[in-house]
Amino acid sequence: PLHSNNNPYASFGATLARDEEQNLWSTPHDVTHTEADDDRVLYNMIVVRNQLDKDSEEWQKLNYDIYTLRQTRKEVRSRWKHILEDLGFQKEADSLLSVTKLSIISDSQNMSKARDILLKLSEETNIFPTSWELSERYLFVVDRLIALDAADEFFRMASTVYPKRAGGERADEGQAPRRV
């Protein structure tokens, strides 16, 4: 035949699409993504959507909800990454934000402080959207920042870049995040 199917890259696009569908966070091929509660919610939404007829209203609504949740997660991760980069962690930002089932808390004594800082970030800044449920993923990130003695500086910068306004409005609504 004129056209051979022996091309090892022939299914590359299909593989990327499949990986993107299963990539619930930001790490392709991470089989641990359904371990965290927020990942499990998204995974369950995808499973339900995939059982529905694509032409149905329920499928379209669920597909929109999945897209919205993914975009929100990407936005939150981007906010954290910008602050980490502004703190001087340009090369380490992605690894500091990378959390899998194999991630561990560096010091169990830091757990309480990490929870307090994460809660404070949630209550006193807009680094998380108002509808956001705190993710265990960011507890690991805060723990890493404590180990690097950068957690308090991270909080100060988050307060500056994403300040809370009266009525819960985001200070950066409609704008790109300010770089400090």
Plain-language structure description:
It is a single chain. This protein is mostly helical and 180 residues long. The chain has a domain of 124 residues. It starts with 11 loop residues before the first helix and ends in a 19-residue tail after the last helix.
What brief labels describe this structure?
180 residues; mainly alpha; 7 helices; 0% strand; disordered N terminus; disordered C terminus; Melanoregulin; MREG protein
Shape: elongated
The total count of strands amounts to 0
Number of DSSP helical runs: 7
Major sheet size, sense and barrel closure: none
In terms of per-residue confidence, which ranges show pLDDT below 50 for 5 or more consecutive residues?
A: 1-5, 7-29, 168-180
**Secondary-structure-derived class:** mainly alpha
**N-to-C series of helices and strands:** HHHHHHH
Estimated radius of gyration? 19 Å
**Average of pLDDT:** 77
What's the end-to-end separation, in Å?
Answer: 60 Å
**Portion of residues within helices:** 40-55%
> In percent, how much strand structure appears in the residues?
under 5%
What is the gist of this entry?
InterPro entries: Melanoregulin. The protein is an all-alpha fold and 180 residues long.
What is the secondary structure topology, with strand pairs?
Elements: H1 12-22, H2 37-50, H3 57-86, H4 93-97, H5 110-124, H6 136-147, H7 151-161
Helix pairs in contact: 2-3, 5-6, 5-7
